[in-house]
Backbone:
């Protein structure tokens, strides 16, 4: 089967573990069979491959997520990168064109589009494959997965099917209702719209060519910025008569808040943490090097990272967004294609960072106009290039770089470096990159 | 008046703000009139001076606390340093000898001895002066302050006075009772024994000379390690007939737990913190640079420092000690006579530290056998001496020191340095100090 996973933007609701760079789907919170922690993305990818090892998976995302996706899934994974945000129709068209032009999937083939972040069990992946086959072998242009509602939620749009069979024509879509309306819909057999649907490549690409003047994937990619913002619902779904829905009966959790997310965790403590015997239904998710001690807490989630500390009653945790938006904190931790960095000290005119370069990786050759930098190698071996001069580096070696000097470092094995930045206005935007 | 403040050892109960070096009396938690934060020690000192500007105050403490006491009260404060722990009798005798031999207080003078860490109001300090005068002008050898109990506490010893007058002879002392016994004592007019008492210097020094063979303060200090461990109660109080107690009617709080301590705080948030409108009776005490966000918490204290994070139901916070004792965390922050240090990153074979040298101060000239060090100056100006060679330093300068090299740094103005330590077994004990 072919799958497009929509990997969305930042998740303020899981602060401090999610930030503008690390969205919730990348946080490693779930134990796999081998007792290793995996992210929602890894879990989703692994399970699709388990159901059908031949699946072609493409992740539709933005530039900022590429490094972390490659770190988690390897460099071979298909990624359709939106050069900028242009709503769901351009994004889905771009990924569909990518499947056809880059991955060479035939136009007659079907693809399933689904979000990367629901927490689902094995049956979900079996349903995805059923949906794929349904789309491939039917005359309906769009095939949706409709989730059987477990309560009258106000958070979902609803799909009204013609009848109560497993697969039915869709009569109507309903916007997110209030609880009362939701109850009415459910009594009439309505299903949650989880944004999971399948279509033939041909179908979407034909609509796209009518609306957008483009040749192929590369052409669309290059003119992406000029595209009009338009939703897939508006451009496609609302104009389509031939839509069917397949009923999906089982577990579906939208892990968008700490409350729902902790329900899906295998253990109550992740990272360094202690709970005394008076704690009940309390979770610690701690990415710091120092311990969290909880005493006598009930229904509380404690989450700590380099960005901050959240202590919340679980139900209240769904209201954190406006508070987090007011926190004006620089990004303290980021995964990069070459490894990661972590801000370890902030002063008025200096910033100290722990840089980890993965074995065999290097930074881009770059310089800064307004800051000096000092590297102290603390572990690993590698090679530094400063203004064209190469030198091997080992623990204890120190390299000083004045503003303007071009520099990079290449890791032979995993290399850890303490980088001290000194300057009047230190900013991530003060960076010039060079090819060599 | 003359006062000996007993400054006791580490307070695990206020972890993570207190540690083996920073006891609770040094944590700056209380707002003074000028809206600046002050510690229990500063508050105690200031209030004694307010009641009587001529008071001679001596702090009886151990070596580890001298730097922080000098930082908080200045270098002129009298400190009687116990070279090692020998229980309360040797400690009180040493401080009394210090008052007489160093501070030149006459033998006929009285001194009030009291702990540094209760949270008390102005009337307490007036009571101390009354106690001092009572001792000075009476034939009783010991004059105690008896606190009028507000509830049948199991945490105090009780004093049974002969009558209910403001000042009465003491009939008996009772060990910490259970609640039932405490109720009985209180109904008979018993008072809490808060460990506050006054005596004439002569009286304690005469007993001391009978029990210990010493000439004067210096002699006692030098042979301190050879002294027998013996409590003041056993050596003095239990053998004494002529003891009186002065009743003290008002507020007295033992701020030994987060529960009691937060009751005395002026505000609910200290440091970077946010509470949503659903929080009740919740306190944030945050020494980290990143924010703490609390949502929907009731009766909870959150305290965060470089050592760790405590999240506790307030009542449960009195039971943290055994949990904290199990946390095997190196000391991450320490005040020194010359400034402070803060561990900002820990790796297997390296440690990165932010060193702050106060203006005009310097480290001891020293070396390490098993680690290299790299200093990067990030702010301020000063002078480094490496193996006898002096050089001026400014922001951006880097100094590398191989294991074995002697080094120090002197601050012209406040100097901040990132120190990277690299070595196989990094330990605070790997340090050799030199005079020049």
Residues:
């Amino acid at each position: 089967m072919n799958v497009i996973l929509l990997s969305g933007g930042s998740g303020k609701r899981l602060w401090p573990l999610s930030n503008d760079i690390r969205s919730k789907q990348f946080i490693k919170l779930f134990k796999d069979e081998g007792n290793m922690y995996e992210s929602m993305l890894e879990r989703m990818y692994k399970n699709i491959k388990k159901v059908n090892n031949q699946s072609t998976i493409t992740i539709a995302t933005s530039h900022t997520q590429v490094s972390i996706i490659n770190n988690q899934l390897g460099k071979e994974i298909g990624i359709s990168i939106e050069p900028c945000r242009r709503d769901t129709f351009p994004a889905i068209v771009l990924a569909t064109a990518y499947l056809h032009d880059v991955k060479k999937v035939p136009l007659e083939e079907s693809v399933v589009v689904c979000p990367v972040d629901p927490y689902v069990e094995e049956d979900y992946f079996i349903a995805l494959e059923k949906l794929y086959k349904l789309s491939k072998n039917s005359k309906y242009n769009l095939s949706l997965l409709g989730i059987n509602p477990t309560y009258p939620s106000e958070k979902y749009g609803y799909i009204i099917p013609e009848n109560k069979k497993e697969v039915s024509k869709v009569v109507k879509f309903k916007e997110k209702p209030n609880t009362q309306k939701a109850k009415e819909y459910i009594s009439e057999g309505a299903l949650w719209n989880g944004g999971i649907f399948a279509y033939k490549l041909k179908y979407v690409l034909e609509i796209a060519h009518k609306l957008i003047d483009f040749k192929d994937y590369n052409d669309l990619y290059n003119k992406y910025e000029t595209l009009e913002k338009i939703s897939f619902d508006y451009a496609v779904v609302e104009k389509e008569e031939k839509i069917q829905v397949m009923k999906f009966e089982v577990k579906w959790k939208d892990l968008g808040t700490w409350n729902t997310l902790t329900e899906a965790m295998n253990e109550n403590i992740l990272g360094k943490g202690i709970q005394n015997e008076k704690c009940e239904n309390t979770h610690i998710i701690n990415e710091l090097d120092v311990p969290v001690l909880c005493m006598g807490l009930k229904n509380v989630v404690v989450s700590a990272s380099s960005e901050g500390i959240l202590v919340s009653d679980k139900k209240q945790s769904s209201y954190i967004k406006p508070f987090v938006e007011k926190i004006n904190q620089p990004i303290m931790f980021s995964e990069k294609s070459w490894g990661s960095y972590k801000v370890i000290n902030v002063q008025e005119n200096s910033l100290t960072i722990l840089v980890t370069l993965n074995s065999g990786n290097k930074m881009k050759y770059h310089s800064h106009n307004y800051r000096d930098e000092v590297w102290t190698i603390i572990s690993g071996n590698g090679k530094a290039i400063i203004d064209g001069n190469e030198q091997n580096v080992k623990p204890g070696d120190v390299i000083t770089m004045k503003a303007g000097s071009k520099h990079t470092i290449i890791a032979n094995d995993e290399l850890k470096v303490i980088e001290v930045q000194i300057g009047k206005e230190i900013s991530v935007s003060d960076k010039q990159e060079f090819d060599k």
Notes: Chain A touches chain B through 60 residues (CB under 8 Å).
